[in-house]
Automatic annotation (TrEMBL):
Highest taxon listed in the record's lineage: Eukaryota
GO cellular component, one term: cytoplasm
Biological process annotations from GO: regulation of autophagy
Taxonomic classification: Eukaryota, Sar, Alveolata, Dinophyceae, Suessiales
Keyword hit for Chaperone: no
Protein name: Protein kinase domain-containing protein
Organism whose genome encodes this protein: Effrenium voratum
Ranges of compositional bias, category Basic and acidic residues: 11-38
Length: 371
């Protein structure tokens, strides 16, 4: 077993106990939640900034309540949202306000993610710096507001927490809980290509991730981009789902592809303009993540007989559907790498990857399944 997996195993009991404690606390304090309770939104304040930005929910002395009715932020006043607080000092790659960037954690299309010290509470935060000169449309601005809106009211031990947001002159800054810079994808890459995590570790990680996804669905939200790269493993082995930039409210009419191939459900990868069930697509992606946890990176490509990093097209989607619809194919593939261990896991994965969304398992059922 590699050192990283050993570290995960040693810390997993602590993380599982803490997650169970958090879960028990939620159940004890929220026995009879109504539909209104499900959409109750907490206040959001800026980390340490001195300026008030009501459009983004940022303030030091005041607190601004984020809209409760629309997690996609379409109800936000875009004109206000676009007004920068030009007096907030910012130096690219160095600091914003009193926050000095300590380390680059990652880089995306619109900018970088940095580690910063939390001046008020101690410890560290992560800040996503989004360069406004890289934004190409108003949809991307809505996406920033939507992600902040979403993270503001999701409170779960396995979901990254929002600390605040700042709209300065040059950039948008989204402050989040710092959970380390090791993703599940990084962990899997440290192992041989066809060797996954220890079964015990995979089960404990998956149960926590599935519980977080079920929590999102219960609150009427779908992540829409579940993949190993969007699951961070912190120092004590606790997984946390990150990057809610594509998240949507359940029931939202979606006819365009959404997610990352090949972790995307067939109906979401090639919808042809037809709406699809966002929650059931999340469950498919969750099963795809589990397969790579158990069998190593690129297992999905190997399973479907594709070359590594085969691009998405209609033919590939049809091949995926034909494979998963054939009884025994998935179980045989898992057994070839997991041996007898696949016998307990295959029924769950088969149920989660059913090509008929209406027959697909829910995240709640998957999280409680004993394997």
């Amino acid at each position: 077993m590699c050192p990283r997996s050993r570290t995960l195993e040693l810390s997993m009991d602590r993380s599982r106990a803490r997650s169970r404690s958090c879960g028990d606390a939620r159940q004890a304090t929220e026995p009879d939640r109504t539909e209104h309770d499900r959409t109750e939104v907490p206040m959001v304040t800026a980390p340490c900034m001195t300026a008030t930005d009501k459009a983004t929910g940022v303030a030091e002395a005041s607190k601004v309540e984020i809209d409760k009715s629309d997690v996609n932020a379409n109800s936000l006043n875009v004109d206000q949202f676009l007004q920068p607080q030009w007096w907030i000092p910012e130096v690219d790659g160095v600091c914003v306000g009193d926050h000095r960037f300590l380390q680059v954690l990652g880089e995306g299309t619109h900018g970088r993610v940095y580690k910063v010290a939390d001046q008020l509470c101690g410890g560290f935060n992560a800040v996503k710096v989004i360069r406004k000169n890289r934004l190409k449309s108003m949809d991307e601005v809505y996406g920033i507001a939507g992600e902040c809106n979403t993270l503001a009211w999701l409170k779960h031990p396995n979901i990254i927490q929002l600390r605040g947001a700042v709209h300065a002159n040059q950039n948008f800054y989204v402050f989040m809980e710092f959970a380390g810079n090791i993703s599940l994808h990084n962990v899997l890459q440290t192992r041989d290509e066809q060797i996954g995590l220890d079964l015990k570790i995979a089960r404990q990680l998956f149960n926590q991730i599935a519980d977080a996804v079920a929590y999102c669905h219960w609150h009427g939200l779908a992540h829409c981009d579940l993949k190993p790269q969007n699951i961070v493993i912190n120092e004590d082995g606790t997984p946390k789902i990150v990057d809610f930039g594509l998240a949507l409210k359940l029931g939202w009419p979606v006819g365009n592809p959404r997610g990352t191939w090949p972790f995307t459900a067939p109906e979401a990868a090639w919808p042809c303009g037809r709406p699809w069930d966002l929650a059931k697509a999340d469950v498919f992606s969750l099963a795809a993540v589990l397969i790579e946890m158990l069998c190593g990176t690129d297992k999905l490509f190997r399973m479907f007989g594709w070359m590594s990093q085969t691009p998405l097209n209609l033919c590939r989607v049809q091949e995926m559907v034909a494979y998963l619809a054939t009884p025994g194919f998935l179980t045989t593939s898992l057994s070839s790498e997991l041996g007898n261990g696949a016998l307990n896991i295959a029924p769950m994965i088969t149920g989660m990857m059913n090509v008929i969304p209406l027959k697909r398992w829910s995240a709640k059922v998957a999280a409680s399944f004993n394997w």
